[in-house]
Amino acid sequence: MPSLLDPPEAQRASRPALAPSRPLEAALLEKIEELSFLRELAEGLSRAIDYPRACEALTELVWTQLGAGRVSYLALDVTRGLLHPEATCPATIPDLAESELRSNEAPFACALDAGCPAVFVGSATPPWRAARRLAPDQPLPEGTDILITAPLTARDAPLGLVVVETRYSSLNLPEHLRLLAVAETTAALALDKARDPGRAEFLAVLRHDLNNPLHTALGYLDLLLDEIEARSLSEMRAAAEGAQGALRAVADLVATALELTTINRGVDALERRPVELAELAVAVAESLRTAASERDQQLVLACRPVRVVADPRQLRRVLANLLGNAIKYSHDGATIDVRCGPASDAAEDAHPVAGAWLEVEDDGRGLPAEARSHLFEKYARFHTETGIPGTGLGLYSSRAIVTAHGGAIEALARRDGQRGTLFRVRLPG
Questions:
Q1: How many CB atoms lie within 10 A of CB 160?
Q2: What is the pTM of this model?
Q3: CATH of 8-261, one of 3.40.50.1100, 3.30.1330.30, 3.30.450.40, 1.20.1250.10
């Protein structure tokens, strides 16, 4: 299976063929919608700290995406043969919570056995016992109350049922069925592992099971972009590039999750070797210079040569996180300073001190002292009103990496007292 890191020609060779009878625009719009939903689902479920919150996140995401009247998740108790309502969006259902929902009775038995999203009519009132599955050739008036069910299965065992209450629309129903089918695997894996207090395995499985759709989607997007270029469909390019951005965000989210599981195993997971910190800082800055120049931002480097023993790949991740955040949260035309040098530069005496320091200083929005102390917490996010995307894991993973190296990272006010933030990393020799 080709990797996201394979050269372009290897990825191109693995591209799926686009059916010639399928209109380009329709295929593109479907993929954009699927990728966006998949990203939101993976991000929301990964962020959930326990099983109840994962159930809540699932129902809220499906409700928002489908624009349904209400979405519920019913967990299956195989031993007792019952379905238990775990979460509902947008409101709780007291009468459903008091009902005994038997998994071997209608409509649940049929819904669980369907193996894919199914449509039911006849009752839009919980507990939906009068609902009957819609036959393929059965005509249905527009606006009829219907149920769409999606069974979740993990490790060949049924977990539960997503129940969507909505109204029939010949235009929207195929889209709803398609998106629920896309969500089934990711949602099932997330809920299965969320019940386990050990999340490391879930994160690794999530990354593994997302790799295949990521590769496939990247192939489709590359193919679509080629066609857009060939046909001079400039109005479609922005949409396709937006889908690529969303897809890369999914890849970054899952990669970050996997890095955390590796780091959490301990320092022995690091592949240490001598690293020239100044050269690494310059390389990372150059890789992000285009992103900065698009906003007329200046990256100013003042790095003295200094060598540390570290894992260069993990250290690069820390630098990319710090500098990427500075670019995202600074205003257009801002100046961002990157500095590094031997620890002896900062020593109070003249005796040599082993190790190094690195600083990234911006003149962005800044944060009060009480907020800076929470920057490195898992899922911590600030300035959310700006709409800047993020997972709240970048600084958390950066601290985990630096700590695993035996170093320290902190967020400080700027030296000149102006608005902005100074991030300082100290590493042992």
A1: 27
A2: 0.44
A3: 3.30.450.40
